[in-house]
Amino acid sequence: MAERGFVLWFTGLSGAGKSTLAEFVGKRLKELGHKVEILDGDEVRENLSKGLGFSKEDRDINIRRIGFVANLLARNGVVSITAAISPYREVRDELRAKAQAAFVEVFVDAPLAVVEQRDVKGLYAKARAGKVAQMTGVSDPYEPPLKPEVVVKTGEEPVEASAERIFSYLRGRGLVG
Amino acid sequence: MAERGFVLWFTGLSGAGKSTLAEFVGKRLKELGHKVEILDGDEVRENLSKGLGFSKEDRDINIRRIGFVANLLARNGVVSITAAISPYREVRDELRAKAQAAFVEVFVDAPLAVVEQRDVKGLYAKARAGKVAQMTGVSDPYEPPLKPEVVVKTGEEPVEASAERIFSYLRGRGLVG
Prior knowledge:
2 copies of one chain form a homodimer. By secondary structure, chain A is of the alpha/beta class.
């Protein structure tokens, strides 16, 4: 039974596989005895950030709220997994600096061409047609992390392989047994 | 070492002693080995609800956010203590119904005359002078709980006595040892 909390912060484009990976890794961590909460972008917007839009300012507020809650959980022994796009580097680095538990940033690095072709939610097609404004990667910036703890290439490898990369890092750092 | 999380939800007028009692009870719970987080009204507004005002709608949104976070913590074994005025009965009852851990509502029942005379933050004087709008108890409603788990009379008894009332209830319910 592991009692050590940490923040596992996924960042990447819409459709890159953050939620899928969060669920997959979260399930395995639970099997290992960890307490786990997944703070998914859409669910958190509903519960913490209804009314906020997608301007840089509103996105940053939303991400700070997720970070605040993730930190509260992590410092109490819970593994907080976040799966929001979190496109801006500065606010991610701010949360890392404030964290009172280990902060593990995972860059879910799938090329725009790949996620746009998959277009799971149909958002890229809408963005290209001008029906969705402020689409990250299309009409809004995405700032990749400069020194993420883990990089996973979800456009090239199955979810199991990406998860194994993450567990390998977590084991190396002594965060999982 | 207790691992059982629950929500300890204080409600009452501004100046009734919610934060003082939350700190006092929180400290004792920590000494007993519980994990404790205090979600204080002002701190939570800063981190989760900046930009919201004091209309019924905005207050309800703020309280729902506190409830969402309190529940996340409580279901992971943390004692979440909230200390926001939370003037509206319906949203408190909604959070109680949704809670995935024990939900203990503590009515911090100090008469308006008493808290207004103390006026710790100077808000009542400002409200009477028309400089603070939507002051609970003065120009905004406060709906006392109909069936709170605990009632403490902070206008008549010292904080130790109010805390003992709360611990007595928690022991009876098996939430503390």
